[in-house]
Design brief:
globular; alpha+beta; six-stranded mixed beta sheet; Immunoglobulin-like; about 325 residues
């Protein structure tokens, strides 16, 4: 099967298994915010409501995440047809900063009023509301890993944006764009499907799918090679804390007849574990062994394996690897 078709297949499988079988964890904060009006007269009114209803920084940060994810839709048409960057002239640094602030303020109001945006609008609105309720918040720009075709890319690109917010003296990672829903390729449209896993995400999981332009987080340098060459993980992997212990690379070099050992934490024999062959048929793993709080099993590399292999646990896609012939 051609690579493009395989890539599309697994991207579609990701959509089906992650978003329709995903067990959503709705917090008490989310339940309260779900009853908020879909529209407020101003961002100030929304911020006042959040500040009144919640006392802690963590709750307020989560409330902002929830309201945006519940009410702002991803503008897929704008993503496909991006506007040209606004150019402007200035005679001093002060004038430059005023004009940049005006552009950002316009983006925030457009997102808030139209209820749709791409990641720049999501992150700008999140930062604005966070700052209004007294939180220190920044926007981070960088790369994202979203499909099997991203495994083994040669370089990163600046194609996404997310937030970091300071809670209890620690920077927390937040991607509200990914928290609001997903693109359903079978329907050709965005689907709202609240996803809490991208609020205060574990950095190990977050940076498997994100890489900042700065290459750093909280003063620590991140590995670009690990990001580019690591496996593709999915939302259920993060939610269930399915740590991928082996293989440690997303690129598997193998000959026909080789057996690849896979080890995943927090899985047991009671789970159904399988992968799809290149004819899209499920293949149940044979003789799995419980080991060190997880499950270890082998996958035979033969003519039935395609260019990529995706592991499923109980119908949910967990991790994808790229197969390269030795």
């Amino acid at each position: 099967m051609p690579q493009k078709k395989i890539s599309f297949l697994f991207l579609l499988l990701n959509i089906i298994s992650v978003h329709f079988a995903f067990s959503q964890k709705i917090s008490d904060v989310d339940k309260i915010v779900a009853k908020y009006p879909k529209s407020f007269n101003s961002t100030e009114k929304l911020a006042e409501k959040i500040e009144k209803d919640f006392d802690s920084d963590s709750e307020r940060a989560r409330a902002i995440y929830s309201w945006i994810a519940f009410n702002i839709k991803y503008d897929y048409n704008a993503y496909l047809n991006p506007q040209r960057s606004q150019g402007f002239s200035y005679s001093s640094e002060a004038e430059k900063q005023r004009k940049l602030k005006q552009i950002n303020d316009n983006l925030i109001q457009k997102t808030f009023n139209s209820k749709k945006a791409v990641c720049e609008g999501f992150t700008a609105l999140y930062q604005d509301l966070a700052q209004q309720v007294g939180l220190k918040c920044e926007i981070v720009r960088g790369d994202s890993k979203v499909s099997v075709r991203d495994i083994g890319r040669k370089t990163t690109s600046s194609n996404h944006a997310w937030n970091i917010v300071l809670i209890d003296k620690k920077w927390r990672l937040i991607d509200v764009t990914w928290g609001q829903g997903y693109y359903d390729s079978s329907k050709g449209r965005m689907v709202n499907d609240f996803n809490p896993v991208y609020f205060d995400t574990d950095p190990d999981y977050f940076f498997a799918k994100h890489f900042p332009d700065s290459g750093t987080f909280s003063g620590n340098r991140l590995s670009k090679s690990d990001f580019l060459n690591g496996p593709l993980i999915y939302n259920t992997t993060i939610e269930k804390d399915y740590k991928i212990k082996s293989p440690d690379s997303g690129i598997i070099e193998a000959r026909n007849g080789d057996r690849i050992t896979v080890e995943i934490k927090n899985v047991s024999k009671s789970n159904q574990v399988f992968y799809l062959n290149k004819r899209n048929q499920p293949v149940k793993v044979q003789n799995p062994k419980e080991k060190r709080g997880g499950l270890e099993f082998q996958i035979l590399i033969d003519n039935n394996i395609g260019d990529y292999v995706t592991i499923f646990i109980d119908t949910n896609s967990i991790v994808s690897f790229k197969i390269v012939s030795k």
